[in-house]
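Running this now, will post back.
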Amino acid sequence: MAGRKKLQCTYNAPVTLTFAFLSVAVLLMGYFTNGRTTVMFFEVYRSKITLSWFIRLFGHVLGHSSLSHYAGNMMMFLLLGPILEEKYGGLNLIEAFAVVAVVSGVFNIIFFPDVALLGASGLVFMMIVLVSASDLRAGEIPITMILVIIIYLGSELLTMITTHDNISQLTHIIGGICGAIFGVLLNGKK
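Update: finished.
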């Protein structure tokens, strides 16, 4: 039986997998504490500036309201994360996550003071646009990136206009804009 390779699992995308595992741990903590830990540390909303406020500003992207909310975000997250991690590196991805978390959190605090924001959908949309920007070269813009941005932003703006839930669409738009900016910046380094 020489030559047979033993099948093994690999932690192929450490940033992506760690984020997914932390998010499910946060979800489970929320279930076990009847939502108290989620409200205290993994939702962003207007409140006094304290240590927990800063944790929420970054940590709200780890929080999810339900298993279906988590699963919806993580399917795309786990699909796109390894591609982006391989292309741009884990540290750049962590920095992008932090920027999207803070920008979307601050926007929520300023424009929607009575609403709590949580979930990774802003990150997911940043990742969608960033993947489509992965072929950026000097003097060239991929048509796929233009189409993704037009279709994505157009549908989000239409949803914002036709529904009363502007929070998630605003977060998606912020994530998409950040993805385009990161695409230009990260591809400009090469």
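Helices lie at 14-32, 36-41, 51-59, 67-88, 90-111, 121-132, 143-162, 166-188. More later if anyone needs it.
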